[in-house]
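Data deposition worksheet. Section B asks for the primary sequence of the deposited chain exactly as it was used as input, without tags or linkers unless they were present during the calculation. Section C holds the resulting structure in token form. Section D is free text for depositor observations; keep each observation to a single sentence. Incomplete worksheets are returned to the depositor.
Section A, Depositor: J.P.
Section B:
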Amino acid sequence: MGGKNPYLKPTEFTLPTQRYRIRFVHGSDERVVEVDPAALPYGRDGLPGSVLDIALSHGVEIDHACGGVLACSTCHVKVKQGAASCNPASEPENDMLDLAPGVTPHSRLACQCVPDGREPEVVVEVPSWNRNLVREEHH
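Section C:
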């Protein structure tokens, strides 16, 4: 079901056709991910090719209580560079962002933000309160 909420109109986005980089910044930690359009989607959380999909598939933890279906605001991130290459935020995404702490003009929900590869690098800040430090063992 990744990224789709059956109660909302589907979000419009364009998948990339060329490689690009996402730089995830969390405090002083940085992780650069090379995105290969041929490998998308990487996982099943968030829209295919979303910041959440890419992050989780490359070991970058971003909390996402609803599983990436636009039903919460826990995957709130800030797109510091390359926002022009991302799909516009939908009205339901903006409504959910109203519930998130620390919202800025650069705020997006990682599950809904899909870069299209027009920019060679997208820089995403993962706020410190966004990381879920609880680790559970898989059953």
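Section D:
The chain has a mean pLDDT of 90.
The longest helix spans residues 51-57.
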